Amino acid sequence: MKASLSARFAPAAILLVPLLAIIAARLATHSDLAARHPRTAALLFLWIAADALTLAAIAKAPKHRPGLRVLLGTIAAGCIVATLAAASPVREALLDMRSVVIAMALTVIAYAGWSAIEAWHTYRRTRSFEKAASEVLPAKLVRFAAFESGMMRLALFKWGAKPLVPAGTQAFAYHRVINPMIAVFLVLQMIEIVVVDLLVSHWSRPAAIVLLALGIWGALFLIALMKGFRLYPILLGREFVRVRAGLLINLRVPIDAIEALEPSITKAETDRAEVLNAAILSHPNVILRLRSPIPHTGLFGKTRNIGRIAFRLDQPAPFIEALEARL
Fold first, then answer.
1. Are residues 314 and 211 in contact, defined by beta-carbon separation less than 8 angstroms?
2. What does pTM read for this prediction?
3. Cys-Cys with 38: which of 93, 288, 303, 306 at CB 3.0–4.6 Å?
4. Chain-wide mean pLDDT for the chain?
5. What is the pLDDT of residue 12?
6. Which of 231, 253, 271 lies at the terminal end of a domain, its last residue?
């Protein structure tokens, strides 16, 4: 039990502890002691920022052995944090130390140049901007940005587009049950945007603008969900089933990997780690049991092995009949 809890909270601690150390060091730069000794405070803040990020990278890396470029990147990030986050007197003292500034600049330039070369090689090999950008920025951040960009493009464009169904595949819809429920949330979101803006604007206009932007983003996200569920149906090909839930889930399952169709699944079972539940806001009516677990990578890069796949179709009977003919 203790080992399980430790494994669960260790990733959060790896991120939280360095962040708290940097925040504490930043607050210390605003103290009277730092104001009296700004050069010493600047060097200490620079050391703490770089050291905290470096230790986090070491703790997170496989076998605690990050590559040289990763270490160079954490030191470069520490230099940037120390320059931007320090109190004004401490920052001015840091920038007055010419040798330190040159060392920080060379570190940042070295990391940026090395990463740019790696990104270019990755793009030439994969033709993927996302993978190339992951050579420079954290992979999870790039993945999140790519997902959000895709959702916003989907919300703003592709009005009236037909479902994306490649040749040689059959499409099975699942949006007729889900989209009416999301439409209700969208109406409530629009009402909330107006009410919150009217109330908060009397207290703070900047806060109202921030909440308005978040509300508009939420509304666009719901629109993208609705459009994605319609445009990306579940596909059945001659040799595979592609399980999709808009842009949230996209998994290609070889038919040879499917052992059988199960008649039902309980809510408790859908919550298990070995079950991929692609039925959004509804209960599955199609359950695939696999011969052996296959890996599935989620939106933000977390991979798990799944032994069953559950999803909901508007009309499951034609899909079940067509799949059973291939099993």
1. no
2. 0.74
3. 93
4. 87
5. 56
6. 231
